[in-house]
């Protein structure tokens, strides 16, 4: 290539210069607010801050107190139960619904709207709706008993041993529709020739899904897992709307623990320590996903 041609081409630094300049405010916002706020939270989690933040370092005292508090341990246990069941049921139910919708059924648009509609509601509204539905005096239990089943019991929100499952029901009702749409988009991207070949070879449909289609949808599953997992870690609205953490502390979750200690107990140091633990949990989820999507998970040409 001649020197004149090289001189006429923009350098790598000046290419798309206007777009780079326009992105500067966004980058500054991300660095100053998000990164700065994160560092500030982590630093002050090692202090004895109460009502107001103060730089009086106490080492790991806040974290030792955090992990010796029964309320925090209950919140972690609840998050683990809620997270595992939410991941499994959301993926299974969402994929099954997407597979059924992918059969070109009649009124597909109507069914898709019905399943996706709960996702348009806020978690507060969803929580209040399911608080009423699971109320033993006015909800499902009362309706079933009115039909003749006098011994029917279904009051998970009032039973401390299963209250987290009542919250799980509301979360699945709201979030499964989004998972279905993501899975349906992935299924619609599968080449039709794969289905034709499997029918010609006499391969059962379930085997085609299990051994061919699902492996091809790996990026969709990974993205869906990240979306679900990030929502699990910060679950708060549903708990507050349905139980406010009760009965007692039976339905406590980490996000509510953070809020209560920072704004009600006025113990910023303890709230920052709990926030940092949640941050670590989110990092454990995001970093492997980023590595798979943008790092070593892809073959370099």
From TrEMBL:
Residues 76-291 form the ABC transmembrane type-1 domain. Belongs to the binding-protein-dependent transport system permease family. It is a multi-pass membrane protein. GO terms for cellular component: plasma membrane. Keywords: Cell membrane, Membrane, Transmembrane, Transmembrane helix, Transport. This is Carbohydrate ABC transporter membrane protein 1 (CUT1 family). Pfam families: BPD_transp_1 (PF00528).
């Amino acid at each position: 290539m001649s020197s004149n041609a090289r001189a006429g081409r923009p350098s790598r630094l000046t290419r798309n210069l206007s777009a780079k300049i326009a992105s500067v405010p966004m980058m500054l916002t991300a660095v100053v607010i998000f990164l700065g706020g994160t560092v500030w939270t982590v630093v002050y989690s090692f202090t004895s801050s109460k009502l107001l933040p103060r730089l009086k370092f106490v080492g790991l005292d806040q974290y030792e107190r955090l992990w010796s508090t029964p309320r925090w341990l209950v919140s972690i246990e609840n998050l683990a139960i809620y997270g595992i069941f939410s991941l499994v049921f959301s993926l299974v139910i969402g994929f099954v619904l997407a597979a059924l919708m992918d059969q070109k059924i009649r009124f597909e648009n109507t069914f898709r709207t019905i399943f996706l509609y709960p996702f348009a509601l806020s978690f507060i509204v969803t929580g209040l709706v399911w608080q009423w539905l699971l109320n033993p005096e006015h909800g499902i239990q009362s309706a079933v008993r009115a039909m003749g089943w006098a011994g029917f019991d279904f009051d998970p929100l009032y039973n401390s041993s299963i209250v987290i499952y009542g919250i799980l029901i509301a979360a699945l009702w709201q979030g499964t529709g989004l998972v279905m749409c993501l899975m349906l988009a992935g299924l619609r991207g599968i080449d039709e020739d794969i289905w034709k070949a499997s029918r010609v070879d006499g391969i059962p449909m379930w085997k085609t899904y299990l051994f061919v289609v699902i492996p091809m949808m790996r990026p969709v599953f990974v993205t869906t897992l990240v979306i679900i997992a990030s929502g699990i870690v910060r679950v708060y609205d549903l708990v507050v709307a349905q139980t406010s953490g009760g009965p007692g502390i039976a339905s406590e979750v980490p996000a509510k623990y953070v809020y209560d200690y920072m704004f009600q107990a006025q113990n910023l140091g303890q709230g920052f320590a709990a926030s940092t633990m949640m941050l670590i949990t989110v990092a454990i989820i995001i970093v492997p996903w980023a590595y798979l999507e943008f790092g070593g998970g892809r073959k370099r040409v």
